């Protein structure tokens, strides 16, 4: 290799040469005083800098002498035949459960997974039923089923985790199972909901190929605990399965699991979380703000995103799970509630940009009326807000909505903007319906966001209620061995336990819990 180097290329330069590779070749040749025939190169990292009117692409590159072999990325996962190995039981097949199962294959243990939902193909039909018939299946929906909440999602792979080495491993296993290599170089990697189901299916096939088991339509309904040790789990068909190690990766929407643990007096803790609304703008407005342009964005640029945060009266108000070129989806997990979230296809080519805008809720200070629910106080508050959205939306999956400016200025919207939300919107006075704790901070926050991004505060945007499932309202406490603080053999894992907030962090926690469970056998 000649060297690693950083390059900055303006959008105009790429346009002139017509292709990325060509302009990079010329720039490298110029920088190193070589002819373009003397070297090859590989992109290690790519990001966009759109802070100023001149937009740049920043690259990190590895340059090689012609004839020299380029470093090949090899994805080596040491999966072993575990068909006859000791089992580790995993409840839930979202990112945490999937990566726990894959890690078991490497560690030489047989993963046996119980998942309440259906496989990705069958799950699709239930999503159609939610969108078109407003029927929410309690075991199969946008949160439950193969791949968990991560399958029909945006597939953003951004994580704040500093353990970059582990993040890379998760990305490599995604590539190993069919994701594009781009995710290894993009500064803001993203897969897209159209590509995720196949990747998730490939992961399941790896687990089965090496002797693991994945049981769909298999909800866990009870745990048998003797002498502070989990000894078996009860399935919905009443079968009792003896267990020694259980990774509990049921996600933040498995309210029946939280309620079951609470009823059994297994220690849980209320956890602070965030709630609010989803805001939807025409993508062109966001593009024009972020790329300093008017009309359609340059075709070399992806749909623009944003990230906003402001402190309002002692609580953070911030954008969450921003989906450029995406759709708002109905993410409820039971009848009688309305919950919205966002997803986008790999090309991010839908005409809308949506994002959660949420307010931090401090469970120990902000919701005193819910104290009687003890560790489940945040969960009960969350439920109430979702029921409010259901009734104010018209008692179906139609969601309550308001034009952004009407919400902030406190008046009902006579009509709403077009939306990507398939079940439809109903005008509702969210400014007065939302608890003051959330509503007043959101209104102040949106005003500030309009100053930070000129054009963001507009009547052309809708706000849609409610964005309530940002993270778990409960922690299932665990010790330094990742075992529940009281129950031996039980490993609370992923977002449901309060140990992750997104696909990648849930995946990493899944791996860690599999390692911890294996270490104890
Ligand atoms: P989950 O994904 O919630 O998986 C839990 C699994 O357990 C589910 O499959 C469920 O069916 C199963 N289960 C529950 N109870 C039981 C039971 N009793 N018995 C058996 N099985 C059970 N994150 C990102 O990082 N990027 C994104 O772009 C992104 N977009 C999202 C878009 C949407 C629409 C949604 C809903 C979420 C999105 N997220 C995104 C969040 C992300 O999906 C979650 O953080 C992640 O899936 C959490 O992983 P998990 O495995 O801990 O839990």
TrEMBL record:
Annotated ranges, domain FAD-dependent protein C-terminal: 272-470
SUPFAM superfamilies cross-referenced by the UniProt entry: FAD/NAD(P)-binding domain
Record-linked InterPro entries: FAD-binding_protein, FAD-depend_C, FAD/NAD-bd_sf
Protein known as: FAD-binding protein
Organism name: Maribacter cobaltidurans
């Amino acid at each position: 290799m000649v060297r690693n180097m950083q390059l900055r290329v303006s959008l105009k330069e790429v346009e002139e040469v017509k292709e990325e590779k060509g302009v990079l070749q010329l720039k490298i040749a110029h920088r190193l005083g070589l002819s373009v025939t003397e070297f090859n190169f590989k992109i290690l990292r790519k990001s966009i800098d759109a802070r100023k009117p001149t937009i740049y692409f920043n690259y990190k590159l590895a340059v090689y002498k012609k004839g020299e072999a380029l470093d090949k990325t090899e994805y080596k996962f040491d999966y072993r035949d575990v068909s006859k190995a000791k089992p580790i039981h995993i409840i839930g097949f979202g990112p945490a459960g999937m990566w726990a199962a894959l890690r078991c294959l490497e560690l030489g243990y047989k993963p046996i997974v119980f998942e309440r939902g259906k496989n990705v193909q069958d799950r699709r039909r239930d999503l159609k039923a939610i969108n078109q018939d407003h029927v929410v299946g309690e075991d199969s929906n946008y949160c439950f089923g193969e791949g968990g909440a991560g399958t029909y999602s945006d597939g953003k792979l951004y994580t704040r985790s500093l353990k970059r080495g582990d993040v890379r491993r998760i990305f490599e296993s995604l590539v190993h199972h069919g994701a594009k290599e781009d995710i290894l170089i993009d500064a803001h990697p993203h897969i897209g909901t159209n590509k995720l189901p196949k990747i998730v299916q490939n992961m399941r096939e790896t687990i089965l190929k090496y002797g693991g088991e994945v049981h769909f339509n298999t909800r866990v309904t009870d745990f048998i605990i003797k002498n502070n040790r989990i000894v078996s789990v009860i399935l919905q068909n009443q079968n009792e399965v003896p267990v020694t190690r259980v990774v509990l990766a049921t996600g933040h929407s498995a309210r029946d699991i939280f309620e079951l643990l609470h009823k059994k007096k297994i220690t849980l803790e209320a956890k602070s979380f965030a709630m609010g609304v989803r805001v939807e703008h025409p993508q062109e407005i966001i593009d024009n703000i972020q790329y300093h342009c008017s009309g359609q964005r340059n075709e070399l640029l992806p749909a623009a995103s944003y990230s906003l945060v402001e402190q309002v009266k002692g609580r953070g108000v911030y954008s969450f799970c921003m989906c450029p070129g995406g759709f708002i989806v109905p993410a409820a997990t039971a009848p009688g509630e309305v919950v919205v979230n966002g997803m986008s296809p790999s090309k991010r080519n839908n005409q809308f940009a949506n994002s959660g805008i949420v307010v931090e809720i401090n469970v120990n200070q902000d919701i005193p009326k819910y104290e009687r629910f003890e560790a489940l106080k945040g969960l009960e508050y969350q439920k109430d807000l979702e029921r409010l959205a259901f009734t104010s939306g018209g008692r179906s999956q139609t969601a309550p909505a308001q034009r952004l400016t009407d919400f902030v200025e406190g008046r009902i919207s006579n009509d709403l903007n077009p939306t990507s939300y398939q079940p439809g919107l109903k005008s509702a006075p969210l400014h007065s319906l939302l608890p003051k704790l959330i509503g007043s901070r959101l209104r102040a926050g949106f005003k500030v966001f309009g100053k930070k991004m000129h054009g963001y505060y507009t009547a052309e945007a809708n706000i849609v209620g409610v964005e309530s499932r940002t993270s778990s309202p409960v922690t299932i406490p665990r010790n330094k061995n990742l075992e529940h603080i009281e129950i031996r053999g039980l490993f609370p894992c992923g977002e449901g336990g309060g140990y992750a907030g997104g696909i990648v962090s849930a995946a990493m926690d899944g791996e860690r819990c599999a390692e911890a469970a294996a270490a104890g056998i």
